[in-house]
From TrEMBL:
<dbReference type="InterPro" id="IPR012131">
    <property type="entry name" value="Hstdl_DH"/>
</dbReference>
<keyword id="KW-0408">Iron</keyword>
<dbReference type="GO" id="GO:0000105">
    <property type="term" value="P:L-histidine biosynthetic process"/>
</dbReference>
<dbReference type="GO" id="GO:0046872">
    <property type="term" value="F:metal ion binding"/>
</dbReference>
<dbReference type="InterPro" id="IPR058240">
    <property type="entry name" value="rSAM_sf"/>
</dbReference>
<dbReference type="GO" id="GO:0004399">
    <property type="term" value="F:histidinol dehydrogenase activity"/>
</dbReference>
<dbReference type="InterPro" id="IPR013785">
    <property type="entry name" value="Aldolase_TIM"/>
</dbReference>
<dbReference type="GO" id="GO:0051536">
    <property type="term" value="F:iron-sulfur cluster binding"/>
</dbReference>
<keyword id="KW-0862">Zinc</keyword>
<comment type="similarity">
    <text>Belongs to the histidinol dehydrogenase family.</text>
</comment>
<keyword id="KW-0479">Metal-binding</keyword>
<dbReference type="InterPro" id="IPR016161">
    <property type="entry name" value="Ald_DH/histidinol_DH"/>
</dbReference>
<dbReference type="InterPro" id="IPR007197">
    <property type="entry name" value="rSAM"/>
</dbReference>
<protein>
    <submittedName>
        <fullName>Histidinol dehydrogenase (HDH)</fullName>
        <ecNumber>1.1.1.23</ecNumber>
    </submittedName>
</protein>
<dbReference type="GO" id="GO:0005829">
    <property type="term" value="C:cytosol"/>
</dbReference>
<dbReference type="Pfam" id="PF00815">
    <property type="entry name" value="Histidinol_dh"/>
</dbReference>
<keyword id="KW-0949">S-adenosyl-L-methionine</keyword>
Amino acid sequence: MRILVSADFDSYWEGLSVPVTDEGVSAAVREVIAGVRKDGDAAVRSYAARFDRSSPETLEVPMSALKAAWENLRAEEPELAAALELAAGHIRRFAEKQKAQFGDFEYEMSPGLFTGQRVIPVQRAAIYVPSGRFPLISTVLMGAIPAVVAGVPEVMAVSAPLEDGLPDRRILAAAYIAGLHRVFAIGGAQAIAALALGTKTVPRVDIIAGPGNKYVAAAKRLLFGEVGIDFVAGPTDVLIIADDTADVPRTGVSGASSAIAVTDAADLAAADMLAQAEHDPDARARVLVPNRDFADRVAVALEKRLAVLPTAETARASLDAGGLIIVYETKDEALRIANTIAPEHLELQVANPESWVPALKNYGSLFIGDMAAEVLGDYSAGINHTLPTSGSARFSGGLSVRHFLKTVTTLRCEKGSGFEEARLAAECIAQAEGLIAHRESAAARSKPLTPGSIENHRSREGGALVYPVYSRRSRGLSVGINLFPDEKICTFDCPYCEVFPFKTDISFSVPLMEQTLREVLSQAHSQSIEVKDICFSGNGEPTISPHFPAALEAALRIRDELVPWAALVVITNATGLLNDRIFELLRSAAAGKAALRIWLKLDAGTEAWYSRMDQSSVPFDSLRARIREFAALAPFTVQTMICAIDGAPPSAEEATAWERLVLDLAGGGKIRSVQIYGKARPSPGDPQASQLPLSFLEERAASLRTALGGSGRDAIPVEVFP
């Protein structure tokens, strides 16, 4: 038994050896699993002959033996039978309360999109019941009753046979009142293998629960994946937080004439520590106390109790190996240490124990107040005693109804705005991830663009004059207008462009565009889909089309009539600005009440990178000068593609020049935002143009944000779209 001050706890805890897998045990268990996998029942009997007290020819225990065991127990040990009935009732009621927290539901997430949950019991569950040093009759109740309450159609147990070929009679009696459907006289790793793999006699189960020795634990660990398990249990442990306020009996313990009377709070803590230590030499009993005097009294009380304890040899071995008394200075310190240890059992024998509960996060089961003995949880209070050990309470809870239930989800779709938004979003995300079959699966739920459908988007082959898409930059449904449905026409030849070469016999006309745009917007309205924007983009540079002025006027008129909240956007590479008529049209529409939004492409800061990224015959200096002139007169958004060309990203010199150009344009106060985006889709220029890591784009964005004045309220937004 070691006494430790809290200041030394961290170094002590870090110095504990991390449990490692015993390769000898693992090798032996692998042999057993392989044997059962190959030879089934014959292997089970062979291993039983080697490791168990007998190897029964008949592995399944007849149900009549369970009933007889219960009747004999009631006749010969009525007090124990009554105790088991009480415990079983409590466990069942608690499990029923737990199950009530799980329910089926279906929820209409948005119109046409129905998400749901179903809670389904597994079909077969098995409980492993140890019968080595002590036959754990309580484990039958703790494992089987939650499974039965969960609604598992077939619940069975396995336990090693005694000399007569049957498990311990008390275990069989407990199996009877727990409501088990089948019991097998099998123990050890061979029992776990038989349940996980199935044999001619033993059916394959879906989940195995219950504690066991290191061979059983190894078998569960090795077979997890072929069968579900509750968890891999290690040595049991308890942590008690105690002070001098415990209200303890002074005159002895009722119902146990030979029990030692508890003298004070320190003695009560010692009694509970020994209740854990007697399990196994590897069990761990620890206590947190507020001062050294209390610590010394606990140590003295332990020695007094050990002197008369029948299981003293095991308990002392446990305390000598890992028993610990920790003296803490503050409540916060004690709470931190408790959460670090993450005990299987955590007892609060302190004043106002409820005040400690909110800050305690890691434990298998919590026992609140000095009356709440951990042993009640072990046996009769109704909560489960199969709990996470070895610190695994950091991420797991104890055995419960939920281990025998599967919480599965459902999706049901109908025509509606929510379905369409989700479908379009799925297409967009699948495309960004490069999973084209995923995208096509989502697209298969769409229909060709007709007056009755809004569910198609522009293909790479062009063709559509108006096409709805789910846009990552618009953050929703964007309705595109394509002025070049017959072929790609552009003043740039960007290697990253997504438009593949094509030819169609479809001609653009403003009346046809108007008709189709009205149909698409009306259909969106009928399906309650919010249109975020109408956007001129398509298969080339829209501003060089002779139809652009009339098409822009028509689009503004229809927007104001049908979707006045939606933005009207022109995505341009700025070469149209060299045309005075287009320059003035865009300036007046952007600066006036039409509130046209200009998304202006600015891929480069240097002529060298411009020639590689945009590959245009338009002189870079002329284009840059015209953009500066426009920036002083009308608001716009900068759009910049950042990708690698021939495997090389833009240089540091290019990045600096681009940033200076953006700062220069921002000096006029007309930039609305900056959109940096990466190459997300295949293009005809592949593999010349290739995607860069998101971190590269984020670094460029962070540098620009700093240069523009940080992230204050009036700062120009800089967004990244990978």
